[in-house]
Amino acid sequence: MDATTQHEGDAVGTSDALAGILQAKAEHQGCGTSGGSGKASCGSSAGQGDLPTEIWEKVKNHPCYSEEAHHHYARMHVAVAPACNIQCNYCNRKYDCANESRPGVVSEKLTPEQAAKKVLAVASTIPQMTVLGIAGPGDPLANPEKTFKTFELINRTAPDIKLCLSTNGLALPDHVDTIAGFNVDHVTITINMVDPEVGAKIYPWVFWKHKRYTGYEAAKLLTDRQLQGLEMLTERGILCKVNSVMIPGINDNHLVEVNRAVKSRGAFLHNIMPLISSPEHGTVFGLNGQRGPTAQELKALQDSCEGEMNMMRHCRQCRADAVGLLGEDRSAEFTTDKIMAMDVNYDLESRKAYQALVEEERVAKVAAKQEELASLAGEQSDIKLLVAVATKGSGLINEHFGHAKEFQVWELSTAGAKFVGHRRVDLYCQGGYGEEDSLETIIRAINDCHAVFVAKIGGCPKADLIKAGIEPVDGFAHEFIEKSAITWFKDYLAKVKSGEIEHTQRGDAEIRQGALISAA
Ligand code: CLF
Ligand code: SF4
């Protein structure tokens, strides 16, 4: 089901697109105050921060709305919504909606009743699963009966689970009251443009009120409905995340304007995702050679939009039937056959007890980071660098290099450690042997990092990483990521200061094309 090839057209190095973003960044003077529930900054990486309590309660264990929560809490999707009412040039309808999924994956479609059983089965098996999202495989609001029937069943049987919805926004204004009525606290709208001229290059048509619209007219209708829906939701206190697909040469510079427009309408979080585009996906963009952004281009755009409304950088573009922590995919454990045969024991008390333990771990992690941060106080340096981390979750360096399917990327400076993204990679260790081809792609994926933190690593990959200028660090196995990274960074600064090493800039890195592969 997957395509793993790297897109040959991806240039690694400073490009026109990157130069354009840096220019836009210089012109973008901070962020306007957002209205509605988007007033405060998003769930910070350190905890409640300056968030009002009622907002914090909504985001604290939502893995997409709080970067910090995503290390600890899981989400699941149920694929109950097959139809769609628009066409995006990065979508092939054979596959799941690409607004919240990697292109090229196909989910197993469920009825609302099957979906409700699946939610109970997953909630019983994965007590840290706190959020149920409907994100396709088409558009949830182009399938309102199935979507809302599913919410109704889950509200009744598993009321502790937060409900979440992701839509292209065309039908949104018609359903806002129903969404509010089902206590859906989180809605994502994919907004790729606020200028119909740009939109006409992304959307060949939309279908509304029994009529097909094309070109400028279609894009105008879509943007008007999206922004109207966003305003209506935020007026009702529903937290809104905006997803935008970054398409170099089409909307990359324009997304700063999108960011301003959604911020001023109360959006809480902006998630700029890279276009994933390969000919084998059979999409218009895939077939006409449209490339996705490089890692540096994506980060520059995200940095340029960062302000009062935080940027989401931990999105995994997961599939319409995803299950588990954001960096993992346990959907294969919960196929319809398996669920129907499961003896489900949904025990609210044991879920709460497990989540209390998770909270204890979370508090310990934050305390360890604060302690290490205090020791960084007074350090003077302009050095800012990236490191990669192999983790299975819980905020720990607890994955072997050879077993990592992705690496988290952290930016280190005298301000501390900041999560800035992740890089999906091919497994290095294949049945006990190291795979040289994979190692090359891993190095390309983390080529902008100075070091890679792992629980364990073999001699061969270690030597190759050093040759590529990336320091393998295995001295912090099973310790907290942020505390360890800050400790390493202090040591790095000391070595630079003493002249033992010279600080150099790293190059760009590649964003892996191709679909998300099931872990099973
Ligand atoms: Fe799902 Fe989306 Fe809700 Fe999260 S995913 S409907 S907000 S529960 Fe999350 Fe997946 Fe990214 Fe979506 S990582 S694709 S942002
Ligand atoms: Fe495809 Fe989603 Fe766009 Fe519909 S909204 S065309 S399913 S990417």
Automatic annotation (TrEMBL):
Record keyword Protease present: no
Keywords: 4Fe-4S, Iron, Iron-sulfur, Lyase, Metal-binding, Nitrogen fixation, S-adenosyl-L-methionine
Requisite cofactors: [4Fe-4S] cluster
Transmembrane regions: none
Pathway: Cofactor biosynthesis; Fe-Mo cofactor biosynthesis
Span of the signal peptide: none
Family: Belongs to the radical SAM superfamily. NifB family.
Entry protein name: FeMo cofactor biosynthesis protein NifB
